[in-house]
Design a protein that fits this description.
Layout: H1 2-7, H2 10-17, H3 21-42
Helix pairs in contact: 2-3
Length: 58
C-alpha cells in the first residue's frame, strides 16, 4: 500500500513490485473496504455539534 501511495497508480505499483496489476487492484479494493469498516465502527453513534479537522502528516 505504501508503494501504491508513492507511485500514484496501480500499474506503476505493479511494475515497481513486480506484481500483476490485477493483484494490486485487488489489494487496493480490500484495503478500501477495511478502511470503510473501521471508519463506520469508530464513527458510529457520535453526537457532535462541531468537528475540527487538521492536517495529518505521516
Amino acid at each position: 500500500m505504501a508503494v501504491l501511495v508513492e507511485k500514484g497508480s496501480i500499474r506503476g505499483t505493479a511494475r515497481a513490485m513486480g506484481a500483476n496489476k490485477d493483484s494490486v487492484a485487488l489489494w487496493l479494493k480490500r484495503a478500501g473496504e477495511h478502511c470503510e469498516e473501521v471508519t463506520e465502527y469508530l464513527l458510529r453513534d457520535l453526537h457532535l455539534s462541531q468537528v475540527q479537522i487538521d492536517n495529518i502528516n505521516f
